[in-house]
Fold this sequence. Notes:
Layout: E1 3-5, E2 8-10, E3 14-18, E4 26-27, E5 32-33, E6 48-56, E7 62-74, E8 79-88, E9 101-105, H1 109-116, E10 121-130, E11 146-157, E12 163-169, E13 172-173, E14 178-180, E15 190-196, E16 202-206, E17 212-220
Antiparallel strand pairs: 1-2, 3-5, 3-9, 4-8, 6-7, 6-9, 7-8, 10-17, 11-15, 11-17, 12-13, 12-14, 12-16
Amino acid sequence: MPATIVGTTFPNRLLVTASAPGTAAIALGTTTPVIGYKTFASLTNGQVVDYFIEGIDASGQLTGTWEVGTGTYNSVANTFSRTNIIETHAGTTAFNFTTNVRIGVGPSTNLYKKFDAVTTQRISFNYTGGIIASTGESRWYPPRNITLTAVYAAVGGVSINPIQYTIKKNGTILGSYFEIPASTNKSTSSSVSYDILTTDYLTIDVITNGGSNLTVYIEYV
């Protein structure tokens, strides 16, 4: 079964060989599975996982070039994008592989940093005064790659109608809307699981009018 560490799930034993990708995404149509290992078809479309790439020569021997990072699988385009480079043998930017490579999926030191810092942390978005429908403009960027785990909200002045809001990542809604029930000051905590990279940002949109002094809380690990 897949392994999970701090909200990040990855399949066991995924390893393939591929043609030289340069600094671009891996074209999975050209990959060959290593005997005894799984392919990228083990992932789901849009799944974000930690990866490693190693350069190999014509006989399949390691060349000493390598890269680790966080990538995104696209089953429609049949590619694996090198979304966030953590480290290479030569630095911290995408390495230009000019030989064939083997690429696999597994936890990096970045993921273990999340494991070491598993204590839940919280951020808040605050709206003072009367609550009106609005598009969020204040952006929050995470200090590291994180996983959102819970969402809830509170108001100073209650509304006779439910107060609804959405969380957006890079301008796209995560899931559906959240709400504070009518005539109450606080919503119950909603469990979520969304991976957010350091290059992503979060905003809050308010959908409905009513009440006052809204605070939206988001917990993450």
